[in-house]
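Subject: Polymerase nucleotidyl transferase domain-containing protein structure
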Amino acid sequence: MNEIIKKKLLDKNELLINMVIERARRDFLDDIAIIGLTGSFSTGDFHDKSDLDLIIINNTERGWGISDCFILDDVGYDIYCTPWDTRIYEQSILERPDVACLIDLKVLYYAKPEDLEKLNDFRQKALDALAEPIGEACLNRAKKWIDLAKQAYCDTMLGDNIGSVRYASADVLYHLVNALVSMNNTYIKRGIKRYLEEICSYRYVPDDLESLYMSIIEAHTIEDIRSASFNMLNSVTRLHSKMCDNFIVKPAPTFNNLRGTYEELWCNYRNKILNSVTTNDASYAFLSAFGAQGYLDEMTAQKGTRKFDLMQYFDASDLPVVKEKFLEMMEEYVDEYNKVGREVEHFKTFEQLYAHYINPLK
């Protein structure tokens, strides 16, 4: 871009910025807290048709009145508000992908010193989170994005025309980009034009990231789109799993954290599975086994118990097998109690239960 065009663009932006600030000072003095610059004109990565990205933080609902959307010459502009308690807060805890709008915001106007202080507090909160080493917090954020990508992948499989399938694949890609950002505990600093360039610079990415990424974009048929989406999703999911193994300290069973867990397993699932098998009710047995499997997985994740796989034994044509295996797993779960010196709270009479419950310390 030559310097004459660049100067014209910057001069036009200055006029637009001053126009918005003038309106804020005149009509919304108590309603608009901050006006700042973000986007391509902030990073310097703009072209001659780039729009002006302003972050306008409003204190009140009335502040939304400053919003407008218009076209000047052949460039569109969207003047909108960003509330403190939703977008700014979510950016500060790294729950939104547009964290750069907070961290790298160039403040152009603030109504009061306390407004600037409030912004800086939110900004520091985000910076503190980014300064943390890779671990449970950022990997849990990544899992949320991966789960969204899985939902989008389902849409690629359910779509009945190439447009809807391709749209869903873009959703897969978008969510996986954000997952990789979280897995590296960083934030996207530039726009969508630079997504691939940015994420390829990260330490923790799939080995063939660029190929996986572009294969979604370059896919021609519905089957190609679905396959490319799966490959990208599978690669990021596997990397995330390995990182969780490496960076998250696994819990270990203890006398205290196992308290009541076996009894809850018995309460919620044992008799359901026994009854469903006795009555040869495959649907009942299937959902009971599903519930038990979910509980056992939860105990593995939260308490550190061994991994159990009950669902592999479910067979609607041979229900007694899942009953047998479930009872074996319950016995193995008792071993978890034995290892930490805990006894199962199992009473044969009400009197025994009463004495224990009324006088728990005796």
